[in-house]
Amino acid sequence: MTIEGEFIGWQVEQTTGNIIDTLDVTCHAVSVSNIVGIVGPRLSREAHVIALFGEKIGISVISYSATDPDLSNRNTYPNFYRTVSSDDTAASALAKLFIRFNWTSCSIVYQNDAFGLGGIQAISEAFNKSGLIVNQTALDFNVVGPYFTWILSGSVPLNSFNETFYQNLIGMFLIEPAVESVVNAPINATLLNAAYSIWQQYEPESFPGSMNVDNYALFVFDATWTLIQSLQQVCASKINISSLYLSFIGSSYCFDRRFIHSKLLLDAVSRTEFLGVSGPIQFSVNVTDRITGLYYSAKNAQSSSNGLSFVSVLEYSHPGDWRISTKENVIIWPGNSLTQPIGGALLKGVNLRIDVIESAPFTIVEKVIDVSGQSTIEYSGYVHDLIELLQNKMEFIPTIELAPSNQTYNGLVRAVRNGVYDIVIGDVTVTVARRKLVNFSNTIFDNSLRIIIRKTTDVNIDLFSFLKPFLQREDNEALQNQSILPQVVLHVWYSFGNIVGYGVEFHTNTAARRLLTAGLYILSLILAASYTANLASDLTIAKSKAIISGIDDIKNGKIPFNRIGILVGSAPEEYYLREISNGARNYYPLQSLNDLYLSLLTNMIDAAFWDSGTIEYVTNNIYCNLTIIGNDFDKRVFGIVTPQKWWYAQDLDVNILSLRQAGDLEKLRQKWFQAKKCPDSLETSTAIEIEAISGLFLVFGVISILSLLLFA
């Protein structure tokens, strides 16, 4: 092959990944030879520099393996092309692979260079468009099979691993660019056979056989053939080129040289279209990427008689979708299984740092002294039983840690956010503010808020309460404008006239009088019964009346706000600030649940509100002289606190839902929240005591004394 009667020469330079060294050898090569095009470099970080250098001196740069998506920008890299597909295409293929297997999340391990950073950006964007989750950190423990499915972007010699790890490597995937022959599409077989023939003729010792030639070698050939085809087009344009040497201007210093027919060659490369040894080759004036013949193969690590090897199982043709390989090999999944894994990691065998907070009956903490005199902590309660149920189903390894006594619930959330604990299990309410920091599992307990107060044992004695069933000033207009003395006279007269039914010394002897007498007796009977019922009702209400009746009384300021106890850093605090005080922290601050109970018992506060399940338990089993008042409000749920985008979220949610559907969570609720130890005798009695009607006896005493005086 000749150009203007001269053979096409070539020169090989070995790069090491060091950008400065790569630029140095390239500069030296173009200084001593009339280089009109560069095939390579291999790495993306090298290609960024060499592509700009090619623009500087006006020569084409065609890479066969640099895949960084940033290199696709034609405005930034006008002299750059590549015969390998971009990582954007690879990311699209990966997203479709996940959709094919119904996987929903992944973790990415990447190298910190242009190739790694560009790749993770491309994958993240493609996955986000498809609704898939990407975690950009690697786990600190065993992340190989059978718990994870690895997808490699580059070939790894499996025989380089110790044989003891082979079982953990089975099921790996290798996704790499492929040529058309791999996906059973047409290629330029004539050109490929000619290339193989030349290879075997001039360097037979390095020829591995036609079935073992690396795909990237075919990309290299097509990159070289693209330059040759483009040079022939330039020469065929009848431009007077006396020699390649005369086509350069400037000195021998590489940065001062420039290929004067650069634009012609670049235009020719952009227009070049042919069937190459890797598939159809065609470029665009808008991007640097190859726009046809983009293929990928998915290979699966499987055991064989020779150890481990990658076997082709799936094929991909952009922009289409994955299909089963023509060889129809069965996929072997991690764990040497034929069962396709789910879209998330499993907690089986994983060590979990679980934080719990003391809050009966969710977590009950007891110090137990063994026979040797050593003090140990024993846990019981709803949370402890829930952990055992989950552990039996999921087979994780729990390490339970007790939160400090001064730890707030918001502090627990931040501890998971900062990686101090893996998860927190307890009476932690799911709120909007907390969801911005962490995630929560499916519901483990349905919750609401209730008000807790001291039981009221003292009754305000009203000596004249027996008169209440008749008339009260605020309810009768006839009494509202009367002075005190007329009111007393009217009260006594009305009471006497309506209640007393007495006989007379004569008898009726006519039908009319007898009928009237019967009516008077019936009226007296009804009035007496009504009086008795109303008196009992008034005295019972007076006996059982609390300082407030519910949350509306707190909102209306029936008790001072500084007499309301609120636990700092809790969900009830958020409710108080949002619904009651409009952001003002005018409450009595509490640091723990024990602080809440003691503050009520020592009369530091008059009321507090907390989770219904907890205070129902403590008022029925621990603090018998505390009670709940009013209806529940602000209905919420409890969930297990997990990190955002946690690998095991799906596994945990599925198992919690399974426990709920099986009725196990309801059984736990009945076990821990229906118990009652407080005796009924301490409950508020509705019986009418003698003090409540003491005024009646007082009036009778006064009447008796007056009678004695009149008699005397």
UniProtKB/TrEMBL annotation:
* GO terms for MF: G protein-coupled receptor activity; ligand-gated monoatomic ion channel activity
UniProt keywords (A-Z) are:
Glycoprotein, Ion channel, Ion transport, Ligand-gated ion channel, Membrane, Postsynaptic cell membrane, Receptor, Synapse, Transmembrane, Transmembrane helix, Transport
Pfam families for the chain? ANF_receptor, Lig_chan, Lig_chan-Glu_bd
Record-annotated Ionotropic glutamate receptor C-terminal domain positions: 353-675
Q: Which InterPro entries match?
A: ANF_lig-bd_rcpt, Glu/Gly-bd, GPCR_3, Ionotropic_Glu_rcpt, Iontro_rcpt_C, Peripla_BP_I
Predominant localisation class: membrane
Query: Which Gene3D superfamilies does this one have?
Result: 3.40.50.2300, Periplasmic binding protein-like II
* One of the record's GO cellular component terms: postsynaptic membrane
Q: Which domain of life is it from?
A: Eukaryota
The membrane topology noted for this protein in its Swiss-Prot or TrEMBL record is: Multi-pass membrane protein
Q: Where are the transmembrane segments?
A: 692-711
State its location(s). Answer: Membrane; Postsynaptic cell membrane
Matching entries from PANTHER family are given as: IONOTROPIC GLUTAMATE RECEPTOR
What is this protein identified as?
A: Ionotropic glutamate receptor C-terminal domain-containing protein
